[in-house]
Amino acid sequence: MSALSSSPFAAHVGKHPGEPNVMDPALIADPFGGYGALREQGPVVRGRFMDDSPVWLVTRFEEVRQVLRDQRFLNDPTAPSLGRSFDDSPTARLLEMMGLPEHFRPYLLGSILNNDAPDHTRLRRLVSRAFTARKITDLRPRVEQIADELLTRLPEYAEDGVVDLIKHFAYPLPITVICDLVGIAEEDRPQWRKWGADLVSLQPDRLSTSFPAMIEHIHELIRERRGALTDDLLSELIRAHDDDGGRLSDVEMVTMILTVVLAGHETTAHLIGNGTAALLTHPDQLRLLRDDPALFPRAVHELLRWCGPVHMTQMRFASEDVDIAGTKIRKGDAVQLILVSANFDPRHYTDPERLDLTRHPAGHAENHVGFGHGMHYCLGATLAKQEGEVAFEKLFAHYPEVSLGVAPEQLERTPLPGSWRLDSLPLRLR
């Protein structure tokens, strides 16, 4: 049974003909074609969320950027300006269907991802100290060291000459880097990877055990670290909590660690996986990289546009009536931004279906919404770009004859709404 068919959300698909549901198997199997077709219907399309509640799907590049920078659209479904109780929101129904007890609600809603100004600004300022451009640049030798060590060991895991890059490189690289930054011990990192997989699975039986275990683990880390502060992010958050007038609550501190670790490795791992598969199936583009290594930074952006792992944002809610491309979004309405259709919008890109690592001039490569836009632009974007550059450059330097271990059509993906991720990536190293 697939993750989709066993999901508690799947029962809602098809109840409203003519209104696309984000759980529709056809949309999940082919989001490029499916959401592309919706984009050509219009910039704003009426659809249905996982719990079958109505949602506006914003599909085109300019309109997606417009909403992302418009602070009238809120991430917090409990915001007083929305004029409704949390229990009436799609987020409440989502949590109920996930099978999580109510007392875990603050750890989900307290995330920096779910906050709006001024709380979002305050939280972002606290955690951004770990993600400054200078700190990320200083971190690069460590990222390269980790990549070299992992790639050197890849042949140890080969079976019949084939090794899974997702399991043995794409995941271990970013989880090691982000756990180094945060201050999570090496022996705990495999457990974090499992927890991350459980969290994105949408399976209540997995969530109901893993999420509480994650929360308790972070509380235990905080208790331990208070006795021996260091220079990692966890210690910085403890100092902000203990010494800075209570600007950071216990729940906020735990939620921040939870968010940074999970967001800091899941998406990067699948950018590496998706990007490697794309390059191996586009030998002309891979040849460009081999001939001109200065293209790697631009390549990461084009790969993020063309096969990025995140295909839609979390829901936003209109705090007042707003007009988007002639469609009236009413106060309280839910809005979902479809990144995958925006990143292939022919109104913005010439020949968007083509993978072209030279598409944009150097210095102007980030002409996509893969990292978002505006106030909620991805906090870890600089780190993710650096890890992508290092991963691709090191992989093809270590194994210049690497190839897919199966036919491209045999690559299997996890059927999750809004996500594009490989279950595995079998490679032949020589």
UniProtKB/TrEMBL annotation:
Superkingdom of origin organism: Bacteria
Keyword Metal-binding: yes
A Pfam family per the record: p450
Protein's UniProt name: Cytochrome P450
Keywords per UniProt: Heme, Iron, Metal-binding, Monooxygenase, Oxidoreductase
PANTHER family: CYTOCHROME P450 YJIB-RELATED (PTHR46696:SF1), P450, PUTATIVE (EUROFUNG)-RELATED (PTHR46696)
Similarity comment text for this entry: Belongs to the cytochrome P450 family.
